[in-house]
């Protein structure tokens, strides 16, 4: 029973992680050969902004084919199914494989996405601003500090992804994001809704399951942004649940939710607007989303210390 529960949780986390990474056909084309020169450079030359690159490593990318759905997922041609040695009989992803998911990237170079890369500094600013509030608390809020560290990890992982543009860098990006979503939801259930830690854990598992189904349902419609829709709905849901209990916290969460909706819109429009705006809109997702994370952390710390003596909200 316990082993089955662990396996179930692992499958949910994997589903969320790949949902956040994105499985939209037009969003996950691959570079030519997994390297940084030769055929890869030839594949990049003459490519228009936003146009998919062709994979010559394991099959090809056909923008009009349903076979592209789930690229990078088990069962797709971009996975090394089977293999030799310890990996035989299991699906193995090529972590060195390069990906092109964003409008700004036109070549495989380290600085091919300058706007997307540099704007990850906003997450570090968000973490530092949150830490400044944390240091002024009259008590040590360790759950909040852990989430602050995760926000810093999001910035570092996202920078790696927008520079190296490989599968391993993508995991550095999406794993901290998924961790923040689950960690903050659990904390919100305790601080804003008033659940015990054990009931909050059960609510988090239920949220993970419902979110997994929602990602599967809406993925073909909204693409890679589907991985963030459960988090968006959760922000507004928690705001509604704690409206009577703590109106100030509810207002703060609602503002964060509205900003997150705008941020998610810019993320979704990165490819559709690529022809008109060659830099893309993904960098705006970074700037706005970093602000959202700061607002969420600020609300959580203020809710913890709403009645602490000698504490003023500050930033």
Oligomer, anyone?
single chain
Strand content: under 5%
SSE string, helices as H and strands as E: HHEEHHHHHHHH
What structural class is derived from the secondary structure elements? Answer: mainly alpha
**Overall number of strands:** 2
Order of strands across the main sheet: 1-2
Describe the structure.
It is a single chain. By secondary structure, the protein is mainly alpha-helical. 57% of the residues lie in helices and 2% in strands. It has ten helices and two strands; from the N terminus they run H-H-E-E-H-H-H-H-H-H-H-H. It has a two-stranded antiparallel sheet. Helix 1 crosses helix 7 and helix 7 packs across helix 8.
Can I get a quick summary?
This protein is mostly helical. The protein has ten helices and two strands. The longest helix is centred in the middle third of the chain and has 26 residues.
Layout of secondary structure:
Layout: H1 2-21, H2 39-44, E1 79-81, E2 91-93, H3 114-118, H4 121-136, H5 142-164, H6 167-191, H7 197-222, H8 229-241, H9 247-268, H10 282-304
Antiparallel strand pairs: 1-2
Keywords:
10 helices, mainly alpha, globular, 2 strands, 315 residues
